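Q: I'm writing up a methods section and want to include an example of the input and output format. Could you take the sequence below and give the corresponding predicted structure tokens, formatted cleanly so I can copy it straight into the document?
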Amino acid sequence: MQFRSFIATATVAAMALAAFSVSAVKDTPVGIAKFVSHPALDDLERGVVDELTATVPGIRFDLQNANADMATAAQIARKFKSDKVQVAVGIATPTAQALASAIRDIPVVFCAVTDPVAAGLVSSYQGGGKNVTGTSDMTPVASQLDLLVALKPIKRLGHVYNAGEANSVKLAELVRDYCSAKGIALVESTVANSSEVRSAVLAIADRIDGLYLGNDNTVFSAVNAVADVCLQKRLPLVTADPTSAETLPVLAALGFDYYQMGRATGRIVARILAGEKPGSIPTYFPTAPAEKSFVLNLDVAARLGISPGADMVAQATTIIRNGKVERRAK
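A: Here is the clean output for your methods example:
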């Protein structure tokens, strides 16, 4: 199955970094803007900050949160431009787009953008734009859906996403393609903001056999409500965010370790601070096993009457059992 290959056969590919030394930076900070606060984006921000704090002497940060509002994201971009930050980091597609649109003379580094080409940030994955480069979290949709189907046969799949997020639109296309190929009926529900998420899930809950959530920032800012509804309706929920799956009653999650992706983004920022041009740095796609996670919640499985096979349990990098989190070496 594809989800097995995602965990077990990923090629270890360490990012090649040229040796450099960075003198103490000036008072001007690195600006970091995230679209909204939720576990995955918070981990990305923490990873960027930790990596740069460890490798760039004297670095300072201007941390901003758009609170899922595009007008606020644009305002933050104008602030970074006016303040002439050393590098502007955009966590998630909407904030990265806002930064790239407003800033043309300062390096912009996108963090966890699903498809930076489709989002208009770079013209190709092989090189950055004139002043733009970064990291992608193109999530393995087919592997995640294979996992859900392996946990429970699915005839009608639910998918909730924000049609206003470019990354979510791209993933919705992949979900449709998967369902078409597998003969699964797809029941979609779209939202415009986090306050609509619970209602969107309830609207389709009685018409589906399971629910999938990709890496949609609007939906994940209310993922606790989604998990609660799925438990009430006895629906298996598989997501693309292992971070939140460690603390919420999600059946399973398969995806990237967002803290490690934040560290990878921080390494790109450090290269730029050392003098490398963004246009010469290709988009970074995580491939190493340490950058991926598979969380399986056996407590939720028991409540849903699902019994994951021993082989699947053995593949999980994190198990939730009897209320405890068991992490395994990757």
